[in-house]
Each structure stands twice: as C-alpha cells, then as structure tokens.
Amino acid sequence: MSNLPSTNIAAIFPFLFGLVFGSFLNVVIYRVPRELSVVKPRSGCPNCGALIRAYDNIPVLSWIILRGKCRDCGHPITARYAIVELICGFLFVAAYFHAAPMESKLALWTFLKLSMFFFLLLGLIFIDFEHHLLPDALTIPGLFIGLLFSLAVPVGGMPALITGKLLALRWPLPVISVIDSGLGAALGASFIYAVGELYFRVRHVEGMGFGDVKLMGMVGAFLGAKLTLFTIFAGAILGTIFGLIATLAVLNKRIARRKKRHESHILRRSWTSARLMLRHYEVPFGVFLGAMAILAVFIGNRVVDFYLNLY
After folding, report:
1. Are 140 and 214 in contact (CB under 8 A)?
2. Which candidate, 50, 55, 57, 41, places its Cα nearest to that of 74?
3. Per-residue DSSP letter, 297
4. Tens-place pLDDT, residues 301-311
5. Angle CA 207–28–222, to nearest 5
C-alpha cells in the first residue's frame, strides 16, 4: 500500500510520453494513407501550407491556445489531433497501471509491449474510420513486433493444460510464448479470412478486406489465441450494434422525407431504400476490432473465464 502514492505520481510520465507519441501518431494518421513520408517535410497547415512552429506543436495545449485554428490562415484544425493525443496519453497510463508496480524487467517489458500495441491500434482505428483503410505499413510490422515481444512477455493464450504439458517437457517459456503468439496470429488472420470468404460466396459482396485479416494477425501476435477470439466476437457484436443503429437512423430519415412528400407505402419503401443503401456501405470493421482488442487487454480474460465457467 505504501507504494501506491508514488505509483500514481509516476503515472504522469507515461501520460506525457503518450501525448508525445500521440502527436507523432497524428502525422502517421494523416500521411500514411496518402503514401507520404512520416519523417519529412515538417508538419504544416493542410490549408495554407505554413510550417507549424515549435511552440504551436505542444500536444493538446497548442490546439487549445490556438482555439482549433491555424495561426497563419485561421483555417479550422480538426479536433481529432487533440483527441488522438489525449487518448494515446490515457492508454499509455492504462498500460502503466496494468504492468505496475515497475519493480522488474517483466513489468517494464509489459508496459513497452502494451504501449506499442495501443499506439498501433489507435493509428489503425482512426485511419480506418477516416479512410476505410488498414495500411500494411502498420499491420505487417505490428505482427512481427508482437512476435518479438512474446520472447520477453509471456502471451498466455494457450489452454493451461497444453502449456503445463509443454513446461513438463522442459520447453523454455519464451519458446512456448512465441508458439502461442504465432498461433494467435494464424487464428486471427485465418478466422477473419474464412468469414470474409464465406460472406462473399453467399452475398457476392466483399464483406472484409485483407486489411482486416492482417489487423487480426497483428492482434493475435500480441494477445495470443484466447484473447484473439474474444476480440473477434466482441468486435462482431459491436459492429452489429452499430449496423442496427445506422439502419434505424437511415430508416427514420427516409420515413420523414416520404411523409413530407405525402407518398404511399412509406414504411415498406423506406425500409427497402435504407437496406439498399446500407448494403453498399463499407463498414470500417477495423474500428470495432481495434477497440475490442484494447478492451481485451483489461477484461478479456475475465469475460472468457466467466463464460467458460457457465458450462
């Protein structure tokens, strides 16, 4: 208990660390989908091209001081910049407390692993939301980074019985962890690929792209098989809820429009119109998968264990 106050105070540093990485992540989110370098040139206003001054590049604070506008041309700067920086800061703090107390190398490696995982996921979530794209520049390196981290941080995604037998055979724990990481990557990628292929054969419409497949390969490498399954099913539930809400919103708009025109068969025609529109709407499924992958880190094991104990 005596270590708690110092732990809380020390959380300031991961928060500031996260803000800085969030600022760089904004560069990634803007430039990677446009196939631009994230290193050069320096950041500038998308409207007038004026270079951002060092004192206008302080995470969150600069956006507030400038009231969300460019200092040179007054063009609005999207609040996404401050939002990404804040979320990244809070996620780094969450990673810190999840790994705390920082009294061992394992705790430090766990913090670094989760911070990198959250950094990659946050970038992918916002890129997919804005561009309906999950770039290889993040997912492929992320997959290999996840595999490498499994050497230092045990993944713990295989059934305890299998892990116990491997340990009894004197398999080194890092080897077991890498195998677990690889199985998670293979399971995540193959599951999403199979679902997307089945959807295409049944509906003749592409349900998921290869970006989602690679994203779940990366998630599996970081989390292992157990939490990868949680991420997929929780992401599907969240995506379904989003789809229902979107359908009802479009349906209500169609009904209101037809009522103003005094048309006949309002409900039937509005439903048909809403269904056709949403059928061709590309749902950014990576947003839901990424969000649930973050949630899986904190509550995934408890949810899965609770579910298994019901049987």
Report:
1. yes
2. 50
3. I
4. 999 888 878 87
5. 60
